Amino acid sequence: MLTLAFAAPLPALADGFSACLDRLRAQAVKRGVSRATFDAHAAQIKPDLSVLELLDAQPEFSTPIWDYLAGLVDEERVADGRAMLERWRDVLQKVEERYGVDPATVVAVWGVESNYGRSLGARPLLVSLGTLACMGRRQDYFRGEFLDTLKIIDEGHIPAERLTGSWAGAFGQTQFMPSTFLRLAVDFDGDGRRDLVDSAPDALASTANFLRRGGWKSDESWGFEVRLPAGLDISLAGRRNRHAMSSWIARGVKLADGDPLPAGGPDRALLLPAGATGPAFLVGRNFNVIYGYNAAESYALAIAHLSDRLRGGGEFRTPWPTDDPGLSRAGRRELQRLLIARGHDIGEADGMVGERTRKAIAKEQTVLGRQADGRASQRLLEILRAAGNVSAEDRGEGTTHD
Ligand code: CA
Q: Model pTM?
């Protein structure tokens, strides 16, 4: 792995990078990007080696699905989403008429992807993608994304300085990759530009277009929570393993409240995100369409569940198989404030649990004689809350620096 021991790229590295940029310039021009656009926005970029570290980073701690969902579908995001449904009601109605995707689903994707347009990512796209196009282990892929970014600028959709995003190049309110933008972004506010950064109507319609092109069925739900009979053969589970409703009924599966399953309707697959003892779901094709947005079942379930909450639905009836639930973003911020007060250098209490927060938690867990799994959990919050603001220094452990 590359380390950041030097402040500036070594000369040989810099030479290699500018030679690579020269080749990219030729490829960009061949794809129809103007020389002026390349020279104004890409010719002078310097590599950002931190994205290479992120490309190769192996997460040190794993995230259980109940922590993942507790942060993504918390009361704050439900309340914000309901306000957005109200605020963008007319646009969302027109989006549904044109693309056949309902407002709650579109808004749920928006809320999970960018917190309703508030968290777009701060890394300059051309710098991240230029670095990844010239260095690291997926250069072919990122070269295409880099050239597509130039195309977006050249076509005048979004100004270069507004193109910031994740380290890997997902950007805007939809967090599309540049290639996805070129395929699927639409201009919905009619100003001639497909602007997924500063136009909510463009972003909402582009999300709906993505789902429609993925095969969204406007007359089907994503699925619903169910209750399993004791002893059900759980080898039947699997997102793509769809069976007729009559078959689930015959096996004794019921709605989560114990009512019988509706007879008929589309085939459904059994999803058991935390195994046989956690919440169970019957999901249909639309669940797989959401999965297509970002290939993870936990991600698709977060969006599906948030869409239900936006429609007025409640939390899952079956609890997750843990006696120590995950934290909402409000709970995470409080936990981070307590960690900071105890002398841990974890940056700001922003509710985002990254490596520094997890390491600080693991240290506190070690002191407490608990398993040092780095989890921002309900019980740890309660313990630290009860302990009050006693700094690590006061406890004679010195200040942490990680
Ligand atoms: Ca537009």
A: 0.91
